[in-house]
């Protein structure tokens, strides 16, 4: 196995060195760089690095696909680059000209930047939301809804409910932190603006229909708990205010001057404009997803399930994170994106099994068996995608076709995700626990159908072993 420190050093060198990095984060399998000049990054050199599975450019990021050990490589990268919070904020504040800014502005480019920014703010939340989702799932499964092991008054049931609700209830505070880091604002200020939105007094005003104003400007009050867009818009605008003040206020009074003036300037923007606008935007998206599912139904799920593998390969699957979070925060369930992801993933699993049967070379079969194990037990699909689907091609086509058919089945059976869970492999079942018996039947049928359809589709399409040495 490649040395994590060497991988980090070579990757950092290939993206243009420390001075070209605005910031770097990671998800479950990828290092995600935002660079001052994306044109400097050499994709070919990155792909040659032992331990790197591939490179994807999307949403203003250069994504280096590492696999399950990405966390260790990231830690080495932090040490190698000696990255600090100050450097990240400085770059965010506009001290450099990125390749993104150099490019000609287009409608699609603007949309991609918005989605990229949203994903950048919400992707770091996934571990928190997964933990909260699992707690809610346990409360539902062990509580009176299913096994009746826990009484609603028991301490354990209450504890699980507290954990499950906390992450979603205080979502504006958490997003306030991640959005502030993304847009170059002081993180604790972002948390403060999020806390204002969920203050009990504001919630009481919303419940009682009390009118409220900021500096005489009417502020439509809503219940902003479990919302995404109100705080996202607030921090986006607020970051420009703070950067402006940071630039012109003398250093001697910046410590108190910048946050204080930022607070009182941004408050009316938050409560009178951003929060109400974001509230209706979030509700509109949730309503739109429900309407799309009602109109297109199984066909919408089928199309997304069939294209899921392609979205992951292109790094565009992260663009769906805002919609998934909004759906769960607003509706409490999802009948579209997570079920489609589940259907597409298990169809791909069936293709994996067929590949093991079709491949005759023992060394390749042993290697690909590791890929299957990594997906099933580790929840990581990148090794298979970059090691088999792309070089052989037919496994990719088979995943698309079988995903489409499996998604159709999941859609017709109204498979519903009750817990926000985007994990792969055996962990993916957790997202569908807690529903009624019909949903469990749909879950079992989708899993079996996906595996069988994927296997048959791949077996029929065959595989040309000569394409890979």
From TrEMBL:
Q: Which GO terms describe its molecular function?
A: kinase activity; protein-N(PI)-phosphohistidine-sugar phosphotransferase activity; protein-phosphocysteine-trehalose phosphotransferase system transporter activity
The PTS EIIB type-1 domain covers which part of the protein? 5-87
Give the range the annotation lists for the signal sequence.
none
Q: Which residues form the active site?
A: 27 (phosphocysteine intermediate)
Q: What is its main location?
A: membrane
Give the organism the record lists. Answer: Lacrimispora xylanisolvens
Q: How does it sit in the membrane?
A: Multi-pass membrane protein
| Alphabetic keyword roster | Cell membrane, Kinase, Membrane, Phosphotransferase system, Sugar transport, Transferase, Transmembrane, Transmembrane helix, Transport
Q: Which Pfam families does the record associate with it? A: PTS_EIIB, PTS_EIIC
PTS EIIC type-1 domain: which residues? 116-469
Origin: domain of life? Bacteria
An annotated GO cellular component of this protein is: plasma membrane
Official protein name in the record: PTS system IIB component (Glc family) /PTS system IIC component (Glc family)
PANTHER family attached to this UniProt entry? PHOSPHOTRANSFERASE SYSTEM TRANSPORT PROTEIN, PTS SYSTEM ARBUTIN-, CELLOBIOSE-, AND SALICIN-SPECIFIC EIIBC COMPONENT-RELATED
**Cell location:** Cell membrane
User: Which InterPro entries has this protein been placed in?
Assistant: Glu_permease_IIB (IPR036878), PTrfase_EIIB_Cys (IPR018113), PTS_EIIC (IPR003352), PTS_EIIC_1 (IPR013013), PTS_IIB_1 (IPR001996), PTS_Sugar-Specific_Components (IPR050558)
Indicate the transmembrane segments per the record. 110-136, 156-180, 192-215, 221-241, 253-279, 285-305, 310-330, 336-359, 366-384, 396-420, 440-461
Return one Gene Ontology term, BP aspect: phosphoenolpyruvate-dependent sugar phosphotransferase system
Record carries keyword Cell membrane: yes
């Amino acid at each position: 196995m490649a040395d994590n420190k060497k991988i980090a050093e070579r990757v950092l060198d290939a993206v243009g060195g420390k001075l070209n990095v605005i910031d770097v984060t990671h998800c479950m399998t990828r290092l995600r760089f935002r660079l001052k000049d994306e044109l400097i990054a050499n994709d070919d050199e990155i792909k040659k690095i032992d331990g790197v599975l591939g490179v994807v450019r999307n949403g203003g990021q250069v994504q280096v696909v590492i696999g399950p050990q990405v966390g260790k490589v990231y830690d080495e990268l932090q040490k190698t680059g000696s990255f600090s919070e100050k450097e990240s904020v400085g770059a965010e504040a506009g001290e450099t000209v990125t390749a993104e800014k150099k490019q000609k502005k287009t409608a699609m480019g603007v949309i991609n930047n918005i989605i990229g920014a949203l994903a950048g703010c919400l992707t770091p939340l996934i571990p928190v939301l997964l933990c909260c989702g699992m707690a809610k799932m346990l409360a539902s499964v062990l509580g009176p809804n299913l096994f009746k092991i826990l009484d609603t008054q028991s301490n354990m049931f209450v504890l699980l409910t507290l954990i499950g609700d906390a992450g979603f209830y205080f979502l504006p505070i958490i997003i306030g932190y991640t959005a502030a880091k993304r847009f170059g604002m002081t993180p604790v200020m972002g948390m403060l603006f999020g806390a204002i939105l969920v203050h009990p007094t504001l919630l009481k005003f919303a419940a009682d229909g009390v009118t409220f104003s900021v500096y005489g400007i009417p502020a439509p009050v809503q219940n902003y708990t479990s919302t995404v867009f109100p705080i996202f818009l607030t921090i986006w605008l607020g970051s420009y205010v703070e950067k402006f003040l940071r630039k012109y206020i003398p250093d001697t009074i910046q410590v108190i001057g910048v946050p204080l003036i930022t607070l009182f300037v941004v408050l009316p923007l938050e409560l009178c404009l951003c929060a109400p606008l974001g509230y209706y935007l979030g509700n509109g998206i949730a309503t739109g997803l429900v309407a799309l599912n009602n109109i297109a139904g199984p066909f919408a799920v089928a199309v997304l399930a069939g294209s899921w593998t392609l979205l992951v390969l292109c790094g565009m699957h992260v663009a769906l994170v805002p919609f998934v979070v909004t759906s769960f925060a607003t509706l409490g369930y999802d009948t579209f994106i997570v079920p489609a992801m589940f259907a597409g993933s298990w169809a791909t699993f069936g293709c994996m099994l067929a590949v093991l049967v079709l491949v005759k070379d023992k060394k390749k079969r042993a290697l690909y068996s590791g890929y299957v194990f990594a997906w099933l037990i580790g929840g990581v699909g990148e090794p298979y995608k970059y090691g088999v689907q792309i070089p052989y091609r037919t496994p990719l086509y088979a995943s698309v076709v079988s995903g489409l058919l499996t998604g159709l089945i999941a859609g017709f059976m109204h498979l519903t995700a009750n817990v926000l869970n985007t994990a792969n492999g055996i962990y993916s079942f957790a997202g569908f626990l807690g529903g009624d018996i019909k949903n469990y039947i749909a879950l079992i049928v989708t899993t079996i159908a996906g595996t069988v359809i994927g296997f048959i589709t791949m077996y029929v399409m065959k595989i040309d072993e000569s394409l890979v040495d």
